[in-house]
Design brief:
The protein has 158 residues and is α+β, with helices and mostly antiparallel strands. The chain has five helices and six strands.
Length: 158
């Protein structure tokens, strides 16, 4: 069974050009601790409440004027939609993740999966086993600045 069968496909995202205030409001409205940052449908990073607190508020930056790109983490863990559910569960347990982004093979964000949802599904269907310890490969993305974005330098300078 593929993880795409368990993921939530409607994912709220921020863009690198959004203000931290907008992103924080989006996280508050949806009760998120972190939000994926996408540009043209592709994952470019993650922004967490901690990122906002440590990189903006603690340094006296304005949430209205500071852009998401200035505070986001450019590394994000993800899996592909066509990966086996048992692999994803094991990966989440090994990495101690509550949720995980799901990308297609073109690296576009297509969903998110939460360990809680998988645990509930496992109890109901018994279709996979958390005890099945398949080899875990750490899958991370280090985003590179797109050369076509003319104003990107202005966004990432602190």
């Amino acid at each position: 069974m593929m993880i795409s069968q368990w993921m939530t496909s409607q994912v709220a995202t921020a863009s690198p050009q959004d203000s931290l205030k907008f992103a924080a409001q989006l996280m508050e409205e949806n009760d998120f601790d972190a939000i994926p940052v996408c540009e043209n449908g592709r994952l470019v990073g993650m922004l967490s409440i901690r990122d906002i607190a440590m990189k903006a508020i603690a340094n006296g930056r304005s949430l209205e004027e500071t852009k998401v790109a200035q505070c986001m983490a450019v590394e994000a863990k993800y899996v592909f939609a066509d990966q086996a559910t048992s692999y994803v569960i094991n990966f989440m347990i090994e990495q101690q993740l509550k949720s995980l982004l799901v990308l297609d093979r073109d690296y576009e964000l297509v969903g998110i999966v939460c360990l809680e949802d998988l645990d509930i599904s496992n109890k109901i269907t018994g279709s996979f086993s958390i005890k099945n310890k398949a080899p875990i490969e750490v899958v991370t993305s280090q985003w590179q600045k797109p050369s076509t974005h003319k104003n990107y330098q202005n966004l990432v300078q602190a």
